[in-house]
Specification:
Blueprint (H helix, E strand, L loop, with lengths): L2 E6 L7 H14 L4 E5 L7 H5 L9 H5 L5 H4 L1 E2 L6 E4 L12 H14 L2 E5 L6 H7 L4 E7 L2 H16 L5 E8 L1 H5 L6 H7 L3 E7 L2 H8 L11 H44 L1
Parallel strand pairs: 1-5, 1-6, 2-4, 2-5, 6-7, 7-8
Antiparallel strand pairs: 3-4
Length: 269
């Protein structure tokens, strides 16, 4: 089975979709099979960030509602051997879908792909709960801004309530000069205010902005400091997921041992 990771944020504009697209591209560059699932219903942008906007026929709501199968909604990014997109609905869609539908879809996708990367809508609410319903772990993208940090903490609380225990935060658009003079919260302040672990820092760079507007994941330009930084952040996220799977595996082993002991006790009696 593959692994599903929801990319979320407390407020809009933090770079959540940029991070999701580059994470998917970097995993594909490593030879992993990846599907990017846009769950920002009515406000889809992941297709633009990948330059795939002209190839969309079916969307995720078509799949969740049973209008079409998964295969029809999958769009392969031809620049990569194994990167696919399922786009969000382009406008508000009132078809009746539930978190259970999403959980089933993620399970099916994990049978086909190594990674399912879910781009969640910003904030909390029903759309957020739907997007995160099938996630094994979560990445919260935030900025060095008081409101963004507080909102990120609230999202973290909601994820914890949903039982997603493997979570981390990525700090995006960091302006080192502003941070140095105390104009924005420091790394120490942010780490203190967020209970979730900080897994990476992305410096503000115009090149990231240019790349997303061109529909090109910036990690495709290998050897740059940006690509190396993304790669290190991805390594930490994957490591978190590996630790989660080890815990689950040990838990399953312990449960089998308990069941065996109970069985032996019954036989002894």
């Amino acid at each position: 089975m593959g692994r599903s990771i929801v990319i979320t944020s407390g407020k809009g504009g933090t770079g959540k979709t940029m991070f999701a697209s580059n994470m998917g591209a970097l995993l594909a560059m490593r030879g992993k099979s990846v599907v990017l699932l846009d769950m920002d219903l009515g406000l889809r942008n992941l297709d633009l960030y990948l330059g795939l906007e002209n190839r969309i026929v079916y969307n995720v709501m078509d799949v969740l509602s049973g209008m079409c199968g998964i295969g029809k909604a999958l769009i392969r990014d031809k620049r990569f051997k194994s990167l696919y997109l399922i786009a969000a609905a382009p406008s508000r869609d009132d078809r009746d879908v539930t978190p259970l539908h999403m959980d089933v879809l993620c399970r099916k996708l994990k049978e086909k792909f190594d990674y399912v990367i879910i781009d969640s809508p910003a904030g909390i609410g029903e759309a957020f709960s739907l997007a995160a319903a099938g996630a094994d772990q979560a990445v919260i993208v935030t900025e060095a801004e008081t409101a963004s940090i507080r909102d990120a903490d609230q999202v973290d609380r909601e994820l914890m309530k949903m039982g997603i225990d493997t979570r981390c935060c990525v700090l995006n658009k960091v302006n080192a000069e502003l941070m140095a003079v105390g104009a924005v919260p420091s790394i120490a302040d942010i780490s203190r205010d967020l209970r979730v672990r900080l897994n990476g820092i992305i410096q503000y760079d115009d090149n990231v902005f240019i790349a997303t507007n061109r529909g090109v994941p910036i990690v495709m330009k290998q050897g740059t400091y940006i690509e190396r930084n993304f790669s290190r952040i991805l390594d930490r996220i994957i490591s978190d997921g590996d630790e989660r799977e080890k815990r689950l595996g040990q838990k399953a082993i312990d449960e089998r041992h308990r069941a065996a002991r109970k069985s032996r006790d019954r036989v002894g009696k």
